[in-house]
Amino acid sequence: MNNQGTFMMPPAESTLAHEVDALYYFIYYVSLFFFVLIVACSLYFVLRFRRKGKQVERTPDISHNTFLEILWTVVPTVILAIIFVWGFRGYLKLTIVPKDALQIKVTGQRWFWSFDYPEGVNSLNDMVVPVGKPIALLMSSQDVIHSFFVPAFRIKQDVLPNRYTQAWFEAKNVGEYDLLCAEFCGTQHSSMLGKVRVVSTQDYNRWLEEAVGSLGAGMPLKDLGEKLYTSKQCFTCHSLDGTKIQGPSFKGRFGSEAVFTDGSKRTVDENYLRESILNPQAKVVAGYLPVMPTYQSLLKEREVDALVEFIKSLKP
Amino acid sequence: MYDKALPQPNYLSEPKGLKSWLLTTDHKRIGLMYFAAIMGAFILGGIFAMLIRIELISPSKVMMGADAYNQVFTLHGAIMIFLFIIPSIPAALGNLILPLMLGAKDVAFPRLNLCSWYIYVFGALFAVYSMFANAVDTGWTFYTPYSSETGTAVISMALAVFILGFSSIFTGLNFIVTIHKLRAPGLTWYKLPLFVWAIYATGILQVMATPVIGITMVLLVLERVAGIGIFDPAMGGDPVLFQHFFWFYSHPAVYIMILPGMGIISELITAFSRKKIFGYKAIAYSSLAIAFISFLVWGHHMFVSGQSRFAAMIFSFLTFFVAVPSAIKVFNWMATLYKGSISFATPMLYALSFLFLFAIGGLTGVFLGALAVDVHLHDTYFVVAHFHYVMMGGTVVALLGGIHYWWPKVFGRMYSEVWGKVCAALVFIGFNVTFLPQFVMGSQGMPRRYYTYPEQYQAMHLFSTIGSWILGVGFLIMTIYLLHSVFKGRIVGKNPWGALTLEWETTSPPSPHNFEATPEVTHGPYDYDKIVVEPT
Ligand SMILES: [Cu+2]
Ligand SMILES: [Cu+2]
């Protein structure tokens, strides 16, 4: 059963989300109380004691009231202490990863998310997880800092280039939840979006089996390449219709002449395509920025062949 | 009953000529030059803000590309923080008013004072250069390793921040010494106006915290220019170290921005309720307490950046600790209203707006201090809304109140009270329409610095953009009536509000040397229970 969330908070879909929301709403109502108190008192005072007429009058010297001063020092201190302890306990729960969790390696890269499963399966921007199981995320970045943020799970953790960070969650319901990058990472920061697809255990096992089985075997290279074009996010930077995005369009690319930033030229052939996939900075086409990440660790040999074959098939 | 002509000679009229302004060591003239400069920065930063809001009307592209958008929000932040809000109250109003409040002839080091204005202008030129030479796109926070790699003009903006820092340090130092050494006879520490206490606490922060951002920016430049690996992991550096350095300055900087605003509010509330301040020492010492504790809470910007749980706990604890003195101040201001004789003149409207907006800004900070909740809210529009309520709802509204309050002192003329009230209302309404929806969308998960965004957030973004137009109209009308009043405003006497602090005992505008004779101080700044002054 999906809940709809509240006016302030999105649906609470992880086991800890409700605890976060409870503290959020505790602070919310305490704040509302003090806010109303401050505004009501101020309004009452300014209306009740407003200056009437032009005559200048003396006002009483009321500059201390020991009882009140102790009251408004102690009461906020106590409330803040409660909030501090509550917040810290919640933080421990959010950050200490349970031992029996299923571990997924998360890699942030400009501008997509890559997930590696213990079974050797890799997926991009589409994290499939079983419902009702704790999932541990071991995260690192290939370039700048990103931040893994799933609002429905109330988790957020920066993803760093030089060390691992961790996060975990346990999804309560089957469904699809937004994954956002929360740390500014450049041009397409706001398109560094993914999905967390929570499925039943059977569906998860079936998905995994399928993914392990068909790591591309049996499929014609061109079709596999077409599939990879979408699943490996090539489309975010390379169009099929000639449109210039972050990188050159694939349309009619093969066989054409490429001009590079250093002024040199060469014909686009298989070897050039292969190099550009595995070592994109080696030759950067003039008019584009050197922003493409390497796919060295993300593609298998056959998958590189498949992509080359697919690009070859795209006639001008 | 006021004179038909401005008193002569006054600091505006004597000496004459452009050179006499550019080489002046008169704190009032330097204050005015600062005022002109920061207002230029405010207009520039404001234009960038309007562009951001227009672009965010729709979830997809409206008028600019992704890179341009990233540059625009970076310039908005960098200009507003470093060129406008940090120097705003201390350097502009502080220079104009502080020596008058002390009964002094000038600040302690008048030439250093002029020097800091030139340093400010010099730093500003670097920022402007960065604007035109492939503007910086890192966000005003310059996080590494993005800032060590990006192809935009990071170096000139980093140098701008470095240079502007010196101007801030010199101003702080100057005011600290001035407050220690140049108080009029009889003006003991506990007879100082609370604005002076606030500027004093701010000065300590400026002198002690600013060097850290300066060094950090130099390290960033060295990394980019000389390839010395400090922050960039590709060169063996640590990007999180940058965040520690950056916030070690930038958290205290939050209080460099808000403490002077709080100082102004203490002046406004007492003057317009004609009432002795409640808890003078509590307010004065809470400024100092805030200044010191603020050095120990920088890590609350980094709860999800990979710092240890232990560090997170300590920083969260200390963050709540710094909230208490701010709360005490709010209660003190409220209590001051009780049994006062309250006028609703324009500056007071801003002071009351401040109470309302700063309360929201402060209370929403409690959400962000709470660790478990911050994990969800960090880097969302909730944070954006929170710091705008503190920085704009707090500091800028206080600044506007201060500008209107001291305007007749500075120019000897009064602005249009009707338009003043209209604009105070427009700013209040526009501000809330702009930023209240951002709390909602932030809680719902809308991340900050997003050029495009999921459709479910559009309604809130639309509200926010409409609010920014209301704000824009408010500021436009304000500019017109204020400029008009400089030439055509009604001429006022020494003390149009009947306030008791020293600056109101000299002519408006003051003579070049402030006072005809050094004033003797016999009463406290807020002795409205003993003394009655007729407004003139
Ligand atoms: Cu990002
Ligand atoms: Cu801070």
How would you characterize this protein structure?
The complex is a heterodimer of chains A (316) and B (536). With 316 residues, chain A is an alpha+beta fold. Among the domains of chain A are: 102-212, Immunoglobulin-like, CATH 2.60.40.420; 221-313, Cytochrome Bc1 Complex, Chain D, domain 2, CATH 1.10.760. Chain A has helices spanning 17-48, 66-95, 201-213, 221-231, 270-278, 301-312; strands at residues 102-109, 112-116, 122-124, 126-130, 134-141, 146-150, 155-159, 165-170, 175-181, 194-199, 257-259, 265-267. With 536 residues, chain B is mainly alpha-helical. Chain B has a two-stranded antiparallel ribbon with strand order 1-2. Chain B is globular, with a radius of gyration of 23 Å. Chains A and B meet through α1, α2, β7 and β9 of A and α3, α8, α10, α11 and α12 of B.
Keywords summarizing the entry:
heterodimer, A: 316 residues, alpha+beta, Immunoglobulin-like, Cytochrome Bc1 Complex, Chain D, domain 2, five-stranded mixed β-sheet, 6 helices, B: 536 residues, mainly alpha, Cytochrome C Oxidase, Chain A, two-stranded antiparallel ribbon, 15 helices, 2 strands, 67% helix, 1% strand, binds copper (II) ion
Kindly summarize this structure in a few lines.
The complex is a heterodimer of chains A (316) and B (536). Chain A is of the alpha+beta class.
